Amino acid sequence: GTNFAALIDSLYSYYGKKAALKKYVWIDVFSVRHPLSPQERQVLLDSGMRDLIEKFDERLVCFQSWKKPLPLDDAWCIWELYCITQTRNQIFEIIIPSEERPKFVV
Known about the structure:
The protein is 50% helix and 6% strand. By secondary structure, it is mainly alpha-helical.
């Protein structure tokens, strides 16, 4: 999974430290219970996740490593990215830790 310190650093890099301290951030790994009943899973897959994602003003995806972004190795994360594309505001931002920024620019 993503290193929590790298996630916080990515948020600070994206928003600036002062602004980041005033943001509320939903981190899905803490919010979605993956072992669901078949009925719960179907509702979540049909529309639940999309409806939830659509409520947020911003959608950020943390690539802890620019060369090997973990969200692209996880089927659930890929599903969440797909759900973003099915919302009215289909935009999401990729955020990276400050130490990864030079690797991205090169």
